[in-house]
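Onboarding guide, step 5: your first structure request.
Type a short instruction followed by the sequence, for example:

Predict the 3D structure of this protein.
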Amino acid sequence: MSGGDRRLQTSPYLTRVMPGEAFPVSYWSDTYGPTAPTGEPPGPGALFGIVGLDGRIVWQSDQAMLDLLRASAAGPAEASALAERFGAELVAVAVARSWLQEPGELCRGYHLISGEIEVTAHCNWGCQFCPVATDPKPRRTMPLGLFEEVAAKLAAVPTLRYVTFQFFNEPLLDRLFTDRLDVLARHNLQLALYTNASALTPDRIEALRRPGALRHLIVNLPSTDEAEFARLTGSRSFQRTTANLDAAIEAGFPVQVVVNGVGASLARNLDGVRARYEPAGVEVFASATCDRAGAVGGDYFQNIDIRGPLTGCGWPVHHANISVAGDLFLCCNDYYQRERFGNITAGSIHELMTSDAAVALRRQVFGVDDAPAGLPCRRCHNQRLDYGAREFRPIATFG
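The system replies with structure tokens like these:
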């Protein structure tokens, strides 16, 4: 392709930020709460900043750079025309930084921070705010050999911070749980354990005591009122669950309690959980409860219908979601795991994350290509521009 025929487009992973204004993106790697893009303006000359995959701000003092990125954000532009309008040197800088890319290279990049491993496919609760309540899946467990392959391949990803054992399941029901901790230890992988704590038995607590095993423990506890707890979870395990949670706190684990719900009942339950656990040094959060892309009804149904090009999401680029069978799929809100793009046995994480199938999905999620009506993202709150936990805001969406 000659220089005159070359076409360039702005990476949809880029977000622009302005000095003194609220950031349009934030990062929720887990329940630690939001963090902002990193990098203070270098001085009064900074007019705007560009944030990429790694969440770092590159501050700029030349307005022409932002104009260039805006001009090629909605679709490909001729490189020669961009060079004539903005200068060949500025175009070359944007290309060198991967801010401008050839259309075929868009959405090939990723920056994994976690591996979300579905070690079991079942749960012993039926929470109202979870699809399991109305459509539970058959009981399945990931074989240990397959898990060892998953762990080894995730450990080879240099940006990875931790793994989880979650996907609408209860990881502590897994009879191989302690064996899996042994595997993680061999690969220096830390576990962020999401659990309802009903099966957090003394032997499980002891296994988690090993140095470096537990990044933190996140417990789903929707209420400290026993009757309300039973109504919300479909379980009568309140006494056992809270006793196990107390034991974990006593063991000195870094514990966080997540309160799911909506409306006035959430506010009431949140107050009760905070009153009981915050004096013990436990962090208590209200979850951003959602309808899981339309999979949950009743009070939790959000009736979201995103039209037109989609506007990006952190899940397909920051988290590797791996099913009990080893399939890689789109995200945590794809309850039925319909959007699959490979199996862990077929290659390395890098090979799978850069496969044509993976890139095609991300191109839809970030609005480069049109997304079909059945893609879960069209019904997901992560695609709403006013969603407070957006991790991406493509430059094309600013108008």
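Each response can be followed by summary notes, for example: The radius of gyration is 23 Å.
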